[in-house]
Amino acid sequence: DRDRLGGIRGSPDLDHRSVNPPASTERASPPVRRANGALDHKMLQNIRELQTASGKTGLFEQIIKLYLDSSPKYIEQISLAIADSDAQALKIAAHTLKASSENLGAREVAQLCRSLEAQARDHSFVETESTLQQLKISFEAIRASLSQEMNATHS
């Protein structure tokens, strides 16, 4: 699958390597904004161009479908990690969802995952439930936007 999909960095179920970001000197959690469902359409255009360049019909839809199918599993892992106060599991699931969200231009989802990663690094579970609820709202907005993008591709 990884070769067929072009080995997209951090794609769920395609690349399980852990990437350690540089250590930050500031330990505060990044600010969290209200979910608006905004997509970075430039990232989606890059995927469309990859599809055209590779000649692989359906690649765009396949990548979006993989994201939409696997992301709820990572959100569930995040939820369980928070319930168990398991910082390591939270960090891994949030990091994986963050990377795949960045690849598709789901900036809000990626930012919320970045916040959860920071909270996990700090072993701070005070705001994790609130951030998780924002993540769920943001993901639903992204799901709707990506579904529209797939439908527009078929039109």
What does this entry look like structurally?
The chain has five helices and no strands. With 155 residues, it is an all-alpha fold. Helix 2 packs antiparallel against helix 5 (128-154). The longest helix is centred in the C-terminal third of the chain and has 27 residues, at 128-154. The chain is elongated and about 45 Å long. 30% of the residues are buried. The model is unreliable at 1-37 (pLDDT under 50).
Defining traits:
disordered N terminus, 155 residues, 64% helix, mainly alpha
> Which whole number gives the mean pLDDT?
81
Structural class: mainly alpha
Please work out how many helical segments DSSP would assign.
Answer: 5
- SSE sequence, one letter per element: HHHHH
Hey, roughly how much beta strand do the residues contain? under 5%
Cα-atom radius of gyration: 16 Å
Shape: elongated
Uncertain runs: 1-37
Give the fraction of residues assigned to helices: 55-70%
Distance between the termini: 27 Å
DSSP strand tally: 0
Task: Describe the main β-sheet briefly.
Answer: none
